Amino acid sequence: MGSQVNYAGPRGISPLMWAAKRGHIQMAQYLLENGAELLQKSQDKNQFTALEMAIVNGQYEMCLFLLNQDESQLEKLKKWEVYLDAAQGKYLSYVNYEQFIVYLKQKVPFENCPNFYKRPDPPKLHDPVIDPRETWTEFFARNIDFKEPPMVERNELGENLQPQNRFLARLRHYFNGYDPYPKKIEDVILKDNENYLKLDQKQQ
Questions:
Q1: What is the dihedral of CA 69, 74, 80, 84, to 10 degrees?
Q2: Fold of 2-112
Q3: Helices (H), the chain
Q4: How far apart are alpha carbons 67 and 77 in whole angstroms?
Q5: Which parts of the chain are ANK repeats (predicted)?
Q6: Half-sphere exposure (CA, 13 Å, Cβ side) for 42?
């Protein structure tokens, strides 16, 4: 293969980096056997090695394979936030990089690892309203796919964006089965207060 084995193409990555990104272990092994440089860095702002390329793309088993070639790579890994930042804006599956790195450093077999690719459940909203900042493009795309409207906490919105203050927003909430008005005190609390007052009056 000659010098071509480490040639960084127009995108600044070598064949080994390309294989690492896609999780092709057999191809990576073949390249290494034919002179591929394990610690070569990409020719872009990130300057990632093949191992780091595999991390960004969530290729855990590929990472283990590359680490077995040279465990000293662990000492040169960056903080997990760096890999998260590198993944932003790319069409990549979700990866819990913090957890991923912890298990990788311990070289835990993939079958014994938790699911790095499961998104955490969104926090439960206390007083949810439909997000009025959704663009028309997002609105039409969502409705074509029959998806639910985006929800946010009411207190995240300014007074001018509160749904109870806007006619179309009220209609939109009713149409989707949501109450546009702020939550009121629960009836059970009112009843408790009434009972307390009655009891207090009897004792006087």
A1: -20
A2: 1.25.40
A3: 15-22, 25-33, 50-56, 60-69, 80-87, 97-105, 136-144, 167-175, 187-203
A4: 11
A5: 11-43
A6: 22
The amino acid at residue 43 is Q
Structure tokens belonging to residue 124: 């439960």
**Cα Rg of the chain (Å, integer):** 27
pLDDT tens by residue, 168-197: 899 888 888 888 998 775 543 554 455 545
User: Which residues lie closer than 8 Å to 41 by C-beta, 6 or more apart?
Assistant: 47, 48, 49
Residues written for the chain: 204
- Of 46, 50, 55, nearest to 5 by C-alpha is 50
For residue 38, give the amino acid letter: L
Phi then psi dihedrals of residue 130, to 5 deg: -70, 135
Kindly list the domain boundaries of the chain, sorted by start residue. Answer: 2-112, 121-204
What pLDDT was estimated at residue 191?
A: 47
Angle at 130 between CA 144 and CA 84, to 5 degrees: 80
Tokens of 99: 């957890």
| Long-range CB contacts (within 8 A, 24+) of 94-103 | 94/118, 94/119, 95/58, 96/120, 97/55, 100/55, 100/58, 100/60, 101/55, 101/77, 103/60
